[in-house]
């Protein structure tokens, strides 16, 4: 993946050299969560599409969670595994924004699996200004307390349907 690369109009992608290839992480027993982004096709000069890739403890596979413009399945616009984990939905430029592994990842992974199906905006999607994929990503970050920051090009991150869900008391916090 290499050094930081400019994303036109979107700043600079984090140094991808800090992140192991996803395929190399399938055999470890740790929980893992990554926040990915890619420039949006057609408006990638100013906007990104973020999503999460998660692996539960002891699992050998990853699941991708995101909000997509076309609703489908049981969770409305919230989609699980619509695309490959690192697929960039035709924008040619997916990159990792942030990653957690081990105990720090577990409550975020648990939140994504348990709360995403009831995301308050799951039945609403508006490209601009939102709610959209950036609104969902920010909702997860807020609900888990993960201090990863979406870039300014995550248009819609400040749009919310309601207050974010909070970690359940039985979910371990790090």
Topology:
Layout: E1 6-7, E2 11-12, E3 32-39, E4 48-55, E5 63-67, E6 78-80, E7 95-101, H1 106-115, H2 133-144
Antiparallel strand pairs: 1-2, 3-4, 3-7, 4-5, 5-6
Helix pairs in contact: 1-2
Account of the 3D structure:
- This protein has one domain (6-144).
- It contains two helices and seven strands.
- It starts with 5 loop residues before the first strand and ends in a 30-residue tail after the last helix.
- It has 174 residues and is an alpha+beta fold.
- It is globular, with a radius of gyration of 15 Å.
- Strand 1 (6-7) and strand 2 form a beta hairpin.
Distance between the termini: 29 Å
Shape estimate: globular
Structural class: alpha+beta
Arrangement of strands in the largest sheet: 6-5-4-3-7
The amount of helix comes to: 10-25%
Unreliable spans: 1-9, 168-174
Percent of sequence in beta strands: 15-25%
Total beta strand runs: 7
Q: What is the rounded Rg?
A: 15 Å
Number of domains: 1
How many helices?
Answer: 2
- Oligomeric state of this protein: single chain
Largest sheet: 5 strands, antiparallel
Order of helices and strands: EEEEEEEHH
- Average predicted confidence as pLDDT: 86
């Amino acid at each position: 993946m290499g050094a930081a690369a400019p994303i036109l109009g979107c700043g600079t992608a984090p140094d991808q050299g800090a992140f192991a290839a996803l395929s190399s992480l399938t055999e470890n027993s740790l929980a893992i969560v990554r926040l990915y982004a890619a420039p949006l096709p057609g408006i990638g000069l100013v906007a990104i599409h973020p999503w999460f890739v998660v692996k539960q403890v002891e699992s050998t596979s990853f699941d991708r969670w995101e909000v997509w413009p076309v609703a489908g399945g049981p969770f409305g616009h919230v989609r699980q595994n619509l695309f490959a984990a690192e697929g960039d939905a035709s924008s040619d430029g997916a990159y990792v924004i942030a990653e957690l592994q081990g105990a720090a990842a577990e409550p975020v992974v648990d939140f994504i699996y348990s709360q995403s199906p009831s995301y308050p905006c799951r039945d609403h999607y508006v490209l601009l200004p939102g709610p959209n994929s950036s609104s969902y990503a920010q909702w997860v970050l807020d609900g888990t307390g993960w201090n990863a920051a979406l870039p300014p090009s995550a248009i819609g991150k400040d749009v919310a349907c309601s207050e974010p869900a909070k970690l359940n008391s039985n979910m371990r916090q790090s």
